[in-house]
Design goal:
This protein is α/β, with parallel strands linked by helices and 318 residues long. The chain contains 13 helices and 11 strands. A hairpin with a 2-residue loop joins strand 1 and strand 2. Helix 2 crosses helix 3, helix 5 runs parallel beside helix 6 and helix 10 runs antiparallel to helix 13. The chain binds flavin mononucleotide. The site of flavin mononucleotide (FMN) has 21 residues, from loops.
Length: 318
């Protein structure tokens, strides 16, 4: 798959997820077959007015390329200023604009999916950004109940110069409830010339394959199902390539991945910026005895404690 001049090894993307998709996690997803990864969202206002902290989320490394940095904001000039600074510092392959976040903290100030109510501002943000930076610009949206109004926004994003669009088939009001509708991505794909990526409720081989087939989209993006489960990308990539399910031991895989992830957080000095217990617990979701293991993780004092308790529980059983 290709977005402007950027080539991707495939068409399965990892979704940007705040407080989840840090660099060590993204690197694991890449290793297992995610074709593209984005940073957690960065506030353009924070970059321009406060510099510091939020900016760190842009950190990546050569191994991760191609990678994208996602920003949000509601002022075309501030978004452009922030993106220029990010471009200069991190040289991402893509800069993605967030028009989908439904979090009250953002929506109340007119950021994220609140902007879907003001298509003309979306247009200005994308247009000014595309004129300001040389990095290709992509956008990620939620949908409106009204198909025509959603299509209108998608057309404006393309007209303003974006080179790809990701469509999460839920409305702002739905938050994360109900089921994502992929009809929107399908219709947008039929209308637009730029690549379209479908997102929402893709959780396994079957849903990945059926969303690609149903929508005709260029790619799919996976969020929550990848939390604690970076190996999902290997499974899906294998299935899309061969039509067969990959055989593996889920419990052993998850535990090995948990240890690799924890060691990588140590290696990159990120153990203090991540909620280690929460992240470790995601890795045990859905495995045998997971509930007992999560209790042990909650009691663990540090990374060694987390890794040891998980290993013991898996060898000895709860
Ligand atoms: C914990 C969490 C954090 C998220 N943070 C972001 C974000 O920073 N930027 C963004 O565009 N979407 C964010 N999302 C939305 C996801 O990228 C994705 O659109 C959504 O989860 C639907 O995909 P899924 O059903 O595969 O999870 C977040 C979702 C979750 C669950």
């Amino acid at each position: 798959m290709k977005i402007e001049k950027v080539h991707f090894p495939g068409n399965i993307f990892l979704a940007p997820m705040a407080n989840v998709t840090n660099m060590p996690f993204r690197l694991m997803c890449r290793k297992y077959g995610a074709s593209m990864t984005y940073s957690e969202m960065i506030s353009s206002d924070a970059v321009v007015y406060e510099s510091v902290k939020a900016f760190d989320r842009g950190l990546s490394c050569e191994e991760e390329r191609p990678f994208g940095i996602q920003i949000f904001g509601n002022s075309p000039s501030i978004v452009s200023r922030a993106a220029l600074a990010i471009e200069e510092t991190y040289h991402p392959d893509l800069i993605d604009l967030n028009f989908g976040c439904p979090a009250h903290l953002l929506v109340k100030d007119g950021f994220g999916s609140a902007l879907l109510r003001s298509p003309e501002i979306i247009y200005e943000i994308v247009r000014e950004l595309c004129e300001t930076i040389s990095t290709p610009v992509t956008a990620k949206i939620r949908v409106l109940e009204d198909m025509e109004r959603t299509l209108h926004i998608a057309r404006l994003i393309e007209k303003a110069g974006a080179c790809a669009i990701t469509v999460h088939g839920r409305t702002l009001e739905q938050q994360y409830t109900g089921k994502a509708s992929h009809e929107y991505a399908k219709r947008i794909k039929e209308e637009l010339s730029i690549p379209v990526i479908a997102n929402g409720d893709i959780v396994d081989e079957a849903s990945a394959s059926s969303v690609l087939e149903h929508t005709g989209c260029d790619g799919i993006m996976i969020g929550r199902a990848a939390m604690g489960n970076p190996f999902l990308f290997r499974r899906i990539a294998h299935y899309l390539e061969t039509g067969e399910l990959l055989e593996y031991d889920e419990c052993l895989q998850r535990i090995a991945d948990l240890e690799t992830y924890m060691r990588s957080l140590q290696y990159y000095g990120m153990t203090h910026t991540v909620n280690l217990r929460a992240h470790a617990q995601w890795f045990t979701k859905g495995i045998r005895g997971g509930k007992h293991i999560r209790t042990r993780i909650a009691e663990a004092k540090d990374i060694e404690g987390i890794i040891n308790s998980v290993k013991e529980m898996c060898v000895d059983g709860p």
